[in-house]
Each structure stands twice: as C-alpha cells, then as structure tokens.
Design brief:
single chain; about 130 residues; mainly alpha; 4 helices; about 65% helix; membrane; Magnesium citrate secondary transporter
Length: about 130
Amino acid sequence: MTYFSKIFWVSLFTFVLNQIIEASGIFIPYVHSYLDDVLCSPIVLGFGLFVQQQFTYRNLQYTLTIPMIILFVAWYALIFEVFLPYSSSSFHADWLDVLAYAFGALLFWRFGNNPAAKFLFSKNRSLVE
C-alpha cells in the first residue's frame, strides 16, 4: 500500500543519496548541477498530487492536468531562474535548469501522475487502517 508513485520514491531516495554524497565533499559536475533540478519535479508534483487526491478533492481518480504540470515548470523557472537571480547575487540563472525541471515533470507525467489506491482518512476523518 502506497500513496505515492514509484517515481516519487525513487526521486526522493536519489535526492537524499545525492545530498549525502555532496555533503561528504564529492561533486560530480553535471550531477551536482542538474540532478536535483530533475528530481524536484517528481517530488513536488507527487506531493501536490497526494494532497489534492487525499484532502482537497477527496477523489482517488484525480490526476494533474498537462496545463497544471506546464504551469509548475513555468513557475519554478520564473522563481529560480528569473526572480531569485535578479533579487540576489547568491543565485545565478541557468536555463539548462529549466530543461531539467521540464524533464522531471515529463517523468512525473509519464510515471507518477496516477490515481490513488485508497484514502488516507475515511469519511469520518479517522485514519484508515
């Protein structure tokens, strides 16, 4: 029984593993630059899908639409590649990051945008066992 797709768990595990590797001082150039950007889309979209299915709409068949996923990519691009680099010298714009967000979103759309198996809470709001 899982409330999240396999791509969510694989992305989350890979993200944590990558952070541990980077914290130990090992930096693989392209992996260091773009892997987190690819992985963020399945993680954030997967969590968003869970919230929508379980709490907002309470509809197991609910999935995110393609325009919603495109909006997510555009929003992340605007925040992380336009607004933050413009407002702080601590950030820099890298338009390859946008391709990474889009690739991760494509992975989510293909492998993670699925109906839920069951509700986390029953109708009377007690945990379903």
